[in-house]
Structure prediction request, 434 residues.
Amino acid sequence: MRSEEDLIRTLRTAADQVRSDGLAGAVAARRRARRIRQRVQVMLAAAAVVAVAGGTTAVLSSGGGQAGPAVTVTSGEPSRLEVQPAAEVWPKAVFKMPAKAADGWKYRPITGMSPTEVLLIAESSFEKAGRLEVYDSAAKSARVLGDVPAPTNVRGYYAQNFEVGEKHIAWYGETPNNGDKWADFWIMPREGGEAKQLGEVTGSMAEVERIGVTDDSVVWSVRSGGVYRVPLTGGTPQRIAGSDGLHLLSWPWAGDRTRRGDVTNQHRLVNLETGESKDVQVPDGAKGMSCLPDWCFAMTKEGVIAQRVDGFVRKTLPSELTLMGSDDDRLGTRFALLSGHDSTPVSESTARSIVFDAATGLKAGVGKVWPNGASALGRGVSSSPTTIIYWDEDREHYDVCGSEGESKTCQSKERGGGKEFTVLNLAAVTTKGE
Prediction:
């Protein structure tokens, strides 16, 4: 599930599960799908739902100085946002690129390596990473970095999220379908070359959630908390001192994930290289607070907020905007992916995906809204917050409706596309909003 059509297919499966097993079955299906969604980092607009029998709805979701209002809201009911397309807001950061390599392997973007370069996975088959390539939007061409191998005698192996360091690209692999707690780690020179396996881990150390790569180590955090490292030369993994209860955000930064009641927020930001620790000023009623050194994002009853770690500078966005509702609302260090209603919707249920820049206050619409109200896009699959959002302008989505008993059921189908991506590379956006 690595593009909008794959997520829609998962939503259809959830709908079928509701019809056959009821709501409890849908919840179980959601749990089974969670690892897949974490693995591929594909987002659908927050309003995307599947209508199922009896009117039940199954929803899948992945959990500077003071500026004026970042988004203007038009009058009328319901309120709509005036949002310009990303190509108009950041013209130097938006470009077209092939969706497939010359040999037919499908591309999956990872993140921006520079303002003009995007790291790509070329997949030999569904979710099977075959090699790494870099697409240069200035030269309008791609170059191969090297193969992404799989370990021998390991069945059901899939490469997971990738991470770009100053000298190396790192990734990890799992066998997500057999229930084993097992993972391995790989590196490749940033300029390209042969991939090297660093080692394997089992048990709680294999429950990888994010990774990073330094000049001498691959680092990763686990879902229960704690950060480990293994040397690039291989060897025994070691737990990083002072990392208990912490979750990697983007090396060297990590944070806690404190749950109070049904609300989870980040209250600490820790530099695992220097030991520096900062307290996050979490306002009353905030939910999902997530911080890197530049900016924090959270939801409050007033709407989305963007603030500094110390809370001194805080921007409250209009209530019509919401975070996408996952661990992956962040893009890069200062951007967030939001959802809000467009000023000219094709239907009352239409939601628009919006990228917000906390540093400049600019916002831009991304993705494409189809006549049936669907709005889908993909995000890069890097471990640290990606700088890449992409979508297929030529893909069409439409509804096919029929009757099932006394209820009307609809399925979302797609056609066309598959040749070209429209890409927003936030690595090309400066603090001046260029």
